[in-house]
Amino acid sequence: MHILIPTAEIYPYAKVGGMGDMVAALSRHLSKLGHDVRIVLPYYRNIKNLNLDHQIFLNNFKVNLPFKTINCRVLEYLETDSGVILYFIDYPEYFDREGIYNDRQKDYPDNPERFIFFSYAALLLTKHFDFHVDVLHGHDWPTGLIMPLLKCGIKWSAQIEEVKTVFTIHNLAYQGNYPLSYFKSIGLPESFLHHQDGLEFFGQISFLKAGIAYADHITTVSITYAREIQTDAGGCGLQGLLQKRKESITGILNGIDESIWNPLTDSYLTNHYDISTIEQKKLCKQDLQQKMGLHPDLNIPLIGGISRLVFQKGFDIVASALVDLLAENIQFALLGTGDDQIESQLTEISKHYSNFKFYNGYSEHLAHLIIAGCDIFIVPSRYEPCGLTQLYSLKYGTIPVVHATGGLEDSVNNIKDSTGNGIKFSPLTPYNLKIAILKAVELYQDDRDRWKKIMINGMKENHNWDYQILQYHNLYRSLTRIMHP
Ligand code: ADP
Ligand code: GLC
Q1: Hey, whose CA ends up nearest to atom 5 of ligand 2?
Q2: Which of 56, 164, 336, 420: CA 20 to 30 A from 156?
Q3: Within this chain, do residues 323 and 288 fall inside the same structural domain, yes or no?
Q4: Are 439 and 476 contained in the same domain?
Q5: 225 and 297: one domain?
Q6: Maximum pairwise Cα distance, the chain
Q7: Does residue 481 have a pLDDT over 90?
Q8: Which atom of ligand 1 is the closest one to the Cα of 390?
Q9: Ligand 1 atom nearest to 384, measured from its CA
Q10: Residues 476, 448 share a domain
Q11: Is the C-beta atom of 148 inside 6 A of ligand 2?
């Protein structure tokens, strides 16, 4: 099948969070299965700076938007190892910027125009294809408008006329909501605005709602999250529409890309290990203790965390639980960036406790060292559509301690005797988090044999996309009735 994936993020070219990882793994695994996969994404400054070899100029074309006409350039890049083709939409006025959505937490005020333009450009690009697109698979609010734009009667190209659309919700809380006045800039007929399933959303327009309302099929990134988003508590105002579309919603837990996240081959690690050489993991702990400036004692339980520091992720709860915890003989290695307030809370704590280290920033390298070097990994998210760091932890024999929500609920099974792979707790409070961490610490200290069995339980699990990719493949098949890749 010919699959077109418009996206705002794809690792390693442009990534803010797990969506970039997921889109990368999805496309590479679809290609491995024999599909023809094309990605379209903005040519951000960061991609320009990569100076990719073999990137070629494809063409220039004109995009007539309701609010202006833009001449953009398209570059084409073939990923030789995966066979995936990427199209970069180059329009410096919108994309030659420091960030993807924002600079230091402040959203670009012209985000609606940027992603209206991107939606048009992605659709017009298909005119230059010499094949018919079978499936278009968009991700989150930046690509939401593409769904109604394909259904409003505009003739984009013959190549995309029969296309079936899939829209994946990675995070329902990021909705791309803008003043109603932007509706005119999208160029959709009025009939797409004011009705229950139209773009209007509490007096604004919503790019995310557009995707949910008009895609042929919706997926989200875990089975539990697929259920949670249909409830008043988890629906972020969209629960009514999601309930209405429930027959067209599928939850598929993300996998992890083992070419990047595998303790045996991880290119960021100096020491490698797998189940048969599990004792070597302590060398990674040694490295991490040294790198973070922690007391070099392999017997002290080391607890890690890596996160965007936003309300969703619950690191304010961690900060509240820390004062009690840091009196124990345990160590922390946290990595994150985000809200100023959470950043300064954690920085402040790190000034007073030598067993608490916080690296305030973004570092792929340190992320790998933490996942490999820690004994325990915390994911205290208020909600978590899927969550990837707990999956990485399982693969690396680092025991996850998580709030039982969304994909965390689906991927972590409570330790019972020698079964299970981690610790889940609920509701999310500083006290419950503290108790859950101490439970893990106690097991680590009291029963190393059982600890090792639990590590191995997680390491043995298969989260390598083999299963997930078949689910996407079958979904595409059922929508298009095309049986071959
Ligand atoms: P989300 O997409 O909501 O942020 P996920 O758990 O799905 O959550 O994915 C987060 C991804 O971003 C993981 O690959 C994680 O390692 C990475 N990440 C988050 N914060 C940082 C950071 N400060 N430095 C390096 N990697 C980070
Ligand atoms: C979002 C979610 C996260 C998920 C990721 C990839 O960023 O917050 O839970 O793992 O997308 O699907």
Answers
A1: 18
A2: 56
A3: yes
A4: no
A5: no
A6: 68
A7: no
A8: 6
A9: 3
A10: no
A11: no
307 and 446 belong to one structural domain: yes
How far are the Cα atoms of 102, 205, 308, 443 from residue 379, in angstroms, in the given order?
A: 25, 33, 11, 19
Question: What are the percentages of helix, strand and coil residues in the chain, rounded to 5?
Answer: 40, 20, 35
Digit-coded pLDDT (tens) for 112-125: 999 999 999 999 99
Residue 261 domain flag: no
Nearest-angstrom CA–CA distance, 213 and 67: 24
State the CATH number of the domain containing residue 238.
Answer: 3.40.50.2000
Pairing of strands 69-78, 85-90: antiparallel
Q: What's the gap in Å between 23 CA and the centre of ligand 1?
A: 14
Shortest CA distance to 72 belongs to which of 114, 38, 100, 132? Answer: 114
19 Cα–ligand 1 center, Å: 9
Q: Is the CB of 384 under 6 A from ligand 2?
A: yes
Model pLDDT for residues 374-402, shown as the tens digit of each residue: 999 999 999 999 999 999 999 999 999 99
Answer whether residue 262 is part of any domain: no
What pLDDT, on a 0 to 100 scale, did the predictor assign at position 194? 83
Supply the range of the domain harboring residue 319. Answer: 275-462
- Give the separation between CA 391 and CA 72, rounded to whole angstroms: 39
**Residue 239 confidence (pLDDT):** 98
Note whether residue 145 is domain-resident: yes
Q: What residue's CA is closest to ligand 1, atom 17?
A: 17
Amino acid 485: pLDDT: 75
312 Cα nearest atom in ligand 1: 3
Sign of CA dihedral 334, 337, 341, 343: positive
Q: Is residue 270 part of a domain?
A: no
pLDDT at 252 > cutoff 80: yes
Residues 473, 339: one domain? Answer: no
Judged against a pLDDT cut of 90, whether residue 256 lies above it is answered with yes
Q: How many residues does the chain have?
A: 485
Q: How far, in Å, from the CA of 261 to the mean position of ligand 1? A: 13
Q: Per residue in 448-472, pLDDT tens?
A: 999 999 999 999 999 999 999 999 9
Ligand minimally distant from the alpha carbon of residue 305: 1
Same domain for 292 and 246: no
* Predicted confidence band of residue 17 (pLDDT cuts 50, 70, 90): confident
Residue 28: the pLDDT is 96
DSSP 291-334: HHT----TTS-EEEEEEEESGGG-HHHHHHHHHHHTTSS-EEEE
- One domain for residues 351 and 207: no
Q: How far is the CA of 383 from the centre of ligand 1 (A)?
A: 15
pLDDT averaged over the chain?
Answer: 96
Q: What percent of the chain has pLDDT over 70?
A: 100
